[in-house]
Write a structure and sequence with these properties.
The chain is mainly α and 326 residues long. The chain is 75% helix and 2% strand. It has 15 helices and two strands. A hairpin with a 2-residue loop joins strand 1 (170-172) and strand 2.
Length: 326
């Protein structure tokens, strides 16, 4: 198992290096920041001075080497627009995005997995049919439209929940968290539900499909022949064999919630990383590069964690890793 994890870790490092090269090259080709940061009346001398200040007058390979040498020390440079270290700006906004993604993923798991099991165990019942029809709607609805709909109905018409903002927060470990206050929970429910609906529908359909296939397997018939209860057959035996695709999708979806909640954060004015990216994408190259690099690192870390969970769930993965090492 150790060789399996070492190999996956080295693959992740190689992927991160390729992501860094790609992101830096694309942002370099996106245009000259001097023409965006300075007014149109700025002289060529002013533009040249700005490029020299940020090292933009150097060749691409020199800029890249300087960037990497600072990045490995945790220094991604200063924001062009705000004049503050990029990492501190990201650290300020990260808690809002993390808690929004976690609450959304929790809602997805609490509703998606049980409804998927229900749809697989009793596929002809009306609750299962209603759940499947609802999942089709959840997958089809655009996130921005759903967010506006929830905002108008629950936030404006019924006035049950706040429509915008993060609400009251509490500082823990140098970061502010909404989930530690009641007012914060009232503010987070609408954006979290907006993000969760699509993932609930996806998990529901995935669990149903995988569980239906597993329930037809020969070992399930053996379990039933031994007189095991239906709950034991499904919970202890069938679900164990459907965990790998569930873990895979959950990991990928959680990464997407962390990295790509831009629309929802903008609609609900949620001060997270997605909203920070929208505010900076045209004027702040260091912040955008750092954001995309860290996003890639988060996805790689999640995939590495998923690989470790695979090895714990399915012993065959550990055995295959040993076989390849031999």
């Amino acid at each position: 198992m150790l060789s399996f994890l070492i190999r996956r870790f080295l693959q992740s490092l190689l992927s991160l290096a390729l992501i860094t090269i790609l992101v830096f090259t694309v942002m370099f080709a996106a245009g000259d920041p001097a023409t965006i940061l300075l007014p149109q009346t700025a002289s060529d001398r002013d533009k040249a001075a700005l490029r020299e200040k940020y090292g933009l007058d150097k060749p691409l390979h020199i800029q890249f080497v300087r960037f990497v040498s600072r990045a490995v020390r945790g220094d991604f440079g200063d924001s062009y627009y705000q004049g503050r270290p990029v990492l501190s700006l990201i650290a300020e906004r990260a808690p809002a995005t993390i808690e929004l993604a976690c609450v959304s993923m929790l809602i997805s798991l609490l509703f998606g997995v049980p409804l998927g099991i229900l749809a697989a165990v009793r596929p002809k019942g009306w609750p299962a049919r209603a759940a499947m029809w609802s999942s089709m709607i959840g997958i089809s609805l655009p996130t921005f439209w759903l967010g506006l709909l929830l905002m108008m109905y629950f936030g404006v018409k019924l006035d049950w929940l706040p429509a915008m903002g993060r609400g009251e927060t509490r500082a823990v470990g140098g970061s502010n968290w909404s989930v530690l206050t009641i007012d914060g929970w009232r503010h987070i429910l609408l954006p979290a539900a907006t993000l969760a609906l699509h993932h609930v529908a996806m998990l529901m359909r995935l669990v149903r499909s995988e569980l239906l296939d597993t329930l037809q397997a020969p070992f399930i018939r053996v379990c039933r022949a031994r007189g095991l209860s239906p709950a034991s057959v499904v919970g202890r035996h069938a679900m164990r064999n459907t965990l790998i695709p569930i873990v895979t999708v959950t990991g990928v979806e959680f990464g997407q919630l962390l990295a790509f909640s831009v629309v929802t954060e903008t609609i609900f004015q949620w001060p997270g990383l997605g909203k920070l990216l929208i505010e900076s994408i045209f004027v702040d190259r260091p912040l955008v590069v750092a954001y995309l690099m860290l996003t890639g690192a988060v996805f790689l870390a999640i995939n590495f964690a998923v690989d470790m969970v695979y090895a714990l769930i399915d012993p065959r993965i550990r055995l295959s890793a040993k076989g390849e090492a031999a």
